[in-house]
Amino acid sequence: MKRSFCRLPLFWKIYLPTLAGLILYNEYLIHLYHSFQWADLQCETDSCVKILLVADPQILGNTFDRKLYWPLANFDSDRHLKRTYKRVVQHTAPDVICFLGDLMDEGSVANDVQFADYFTRFVNIFSQPTANTIMVYVPGDNDIGGEGLETVKSDRVLRFKQYFNEQDETPIEPTLRFLNVNRISMTLPLNNAPSTEERQPYTVLLSHMPILRWADPFTYKVVDDFQPSVIFSAHDTNPSTLRHIVISLHRCHL
């Protein structure tokens, strides 16, 4: 083997080690390097809850992109997502994992057979780490419709609920709850408005599309009715943080 390599032309002596180095770097070392830059999460109390947010994983479909290499592209993308997810879960050891919509790239246009295949791929990539890990799923426009001029399809909404067991409310502890707010279909959790008499839990709103982007009646109703402590949304490709001191969002007409 060593003699065979020594007999190769100079081009191959340079090209082959370079190719091997690039594969090693891009497939392994780059992920290891970035994982060392992640913050070390330490609980300050015994009652803390670690939450992992997964935004827009969008596993690839097989309808729009039918080039010759699409099976390889899907395989490589799934492998990358699975490996990254596994490393993140090992680093964070989350108690709750929230998927903030667009779980699939072509879920809203998939037929039932395709959707079942996408779901099987999804749960293989994003598996439940332990039996005690709480998994929360929120639909996105690529899952149920609503992107651009595409309408939200009621059968797609029902299908997502059936496959992912989507819930309006997920209570974590007596003092912590997650509420699913769907700006795409303009639907809210039922009978989950906070009481004015009892001690209220820390309320986390989950949505695919940002709630506070528009100052419309839906936004006012969400904030006034549920009085969220924090809102987590996805959809946008640029990360942003909005901080508000909210007493009430009731509008005044002059």
UniProtKB/TrEMBL annotation:
<dbReference type="GO" id="GO:0016020">
    <property type="term" value="C:membrane"/>
</dbReference>
<dbReference type="Pfam" id="PF00149">
    <property type="entry name" value="Metallophos"/>
</dbReference>
<keyword id="KW-1133">Transmembrane helix</keyword>
<dbReference type="InterPro" id="IPR004843">
    <property type="entry name" value="Calcineurin-like_PHP"/>
</dbReference>
<feature type="domain" description="Calcineurin-like phosphoesterase">
    <location>
        <begin position="50"/>
        <end position="236"/>
    </location>
</feature>
<dbReference type="GO" id="GO:0005783">
    <property type="term" value="C:endoplasmic reticulum"/>
</dbReference>
<keyword id="KW-0812">Transmembrane</keyword>
<dbReference type="GO" id="GO:0006506">
    <property type="term" value="P:GPI anchor biosynthetic process"/>
</dbReference>
<dbReference type="GO" id="GO:0016787">
    <property type="term" value="F:hydrolase activity"/>
</dbReference>
<keyword id="KW-0472">Membrane</keyword>
<dbReference type="InterPro" id="IPR029052">
    <property type="entry name" value="Metallo-depent_PP-like"/>
</dbReference>
<dbReference type="InterPro" id="IPR033308">
    <property type="entry name" value="PGAP5/Cdc1/Ted1"/>
</dbReference>
<protein>
    <submittedName>
        <fullName>Metallophos domain-containing protein</fullName>
    </submittedName>
</protein>
